[in-house]
Design goal:
With 268 residues, the protein is of the alpha/beta class. The chain has two domains: 202 residues, 2-Layer Sandwich (BirA Bifunctional Protein, domain 2); 48 residues, no CATH class. Strands 1-7-6-5-2-4-3 form a seven-stranded mixed β-sheet. Strand 8, helix 9 and strand 9 form a beta-alpha-beta unit. Helix 2 runs antiparallel to helix 7 and helix 3 packs antiparallel against helix 4.
Amino acid sequence: HPQRGRQREFFQAGVELIGDPAPTADAEVIALAVECLKEAGLEDFQISIGQVNFLKGIIDSMEVDSAIKDKITWAVSRKDFVELEMFLNKQRIDPGFKKLILSLPALRGGVQVIDQVLPLTENITAREALENLREVFHLLEVYGVGKEVFVDFGIMRDFDYYSGIVFEGYSPGVGAPICGGGRYDRMLGKYGLDAPATGFAIGMERLMLALEAEHQVDRLIAVDYLVVSSDPAQAVRKAQELRQQGFSVLVAGQGQDLPVAARKKLEL
């Protein structure tokens, strides 16, 4: 059986922002992911962000043949750091590179982590990735979601798919990411539209598991008005009147017990 939060079939809800290559687009998408989780009722979660070009730059700067680079990339992408360490110990690789790569899972925290890592590499691609990550993190603070976001160099999403910023959302109630995404500027060109893009998807089953763990499921239905009446026709007419004014409305019969969080309750 699949482990909790990992289904063979699943539903997702997502967002794609196409045509904007700027860090502002990455920050907007991540901030939207945070707001989506909050609007769903989730309270305890964190978004971890990374940059795939940081590791790509580090690996490309290593003076080893391409087969070894591919093996390192493969092991890192699988987060198999035990196998990676065993492999690196068999290779003639600069100790500084080895130490940096193996320390990636522990490199996480606020923007100070970027300052901690920056002096460890002279590779231009890696340093540009760090500055890009710093800018996106700063913009997220401007969005007011800095408390929900942290830098995590241990994020290893698909290197062939993603081309820049990557992120994942975690909640204590689920042992797998409840959302994930990032920048994928090369992907659309394979389908005839050469355009930069960034986006994310939320796993709906995983989100429900996280809400269940927080005991938030009973508050999932949130509306402006709950209209209660023993006369269904009267209730429907009042509901339609309110909906035309732009309100969200749920109709219930007298004595009907619904898990509803309504701002106002109207009993007719």
